[in-house]
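Listing S7. Sequence submitted for prediction.
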Amino acid sequence: MKRRFRSVIPGIVLALSASACQATEHPGAGAFIERAVAEFGLDATEVENLLARAEFKQSIVDAISRPAESKPWYEYRPIFLNQRRIREGAEFWRENRELIANASEEFGVDPQIIVAIIGVETLYGKITGSYRVLDALATLGFYYPKDLKRDRSAFFSTELMHFIKLAKEENLPLDEVTGSYAGAMGMGQFIPSSYRAYAVDFDGNGSRDLWRSTADVVASVANYLHVHGWQPGELISVPAEALTAADPALAEPKDYKPVLSAGQIAQKGYHSDAGIPPARPAAVLRLEGKDEYSYWLTFDNFYVITRYNRSPLYAMAVLQLSQEIMREMRG
């Protein structure tokens, strides 16, 4: 299914190009263009012409309606914790050992986490997405499914503006750049605003290339985590047990930023044998297994991973993949 963005204003003949006319009929396109000009300094005619080339994709709407993160943990985990992703993670690390070590040291981020994020995101650059980013962001910005709990159309509209700005800054071909159904790009799957804010030129060639420059990719992932507060060498998560009187609400947080102390959590019925100091801030994570739930205490570094992707399933997959890759590296 394809929709072009057209504009018809009764009684008024406008001296606009056909593409500009197409752009402005799209619901909300007029306000989008005004904001793109006012807040991002973009040219109105350029934006109109760009929107006229953007295509609605039903497959993108379908994909955003059933993300992998909606699966229970026991179905989600095997997607990322498998022998291929572990083996190729170790290979990627060995092939880029010096680069990863340099980025780890410069940005203060544990190397196995950098590798694991790239592995979870794109299988070390092998699966970076086949949707045109222009189509993905236009579809979700203007046609976000109304039956979902959260309306994120404003978020994707803003990302489309960032994408147009990014293309100018990095000399990207707007009509050709591909990525995920949500508009994430490159080996590390950065959305446009994150690309603009956190990507770095680590190979020193004057551009930030998250597709072809492994140096830029590795350093950009590390920088993202660094800026969001990564603490090298610190705990991420440890197993816990929910006692009979455990407060179930504690395992259903709105986010995983540690607020209570481990001692307070223990008083509310969650126990760990990991020897965590009672004063240490933590949160409780509950994961759905086939037969029963598992429980975990999570710490600040776990929360940082959820800044990369808000899903706690994602963060736990990154952690466990990183652990398996380290075992593979040791042989």
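Caption to Listing S7: primary sequence and predicted structure tokens for the chain studied. Residues 1-53 form one domain. Strands lie at 131-132, 178-179, 237-242, 260-261, 270-271, 281-288, 293-298.
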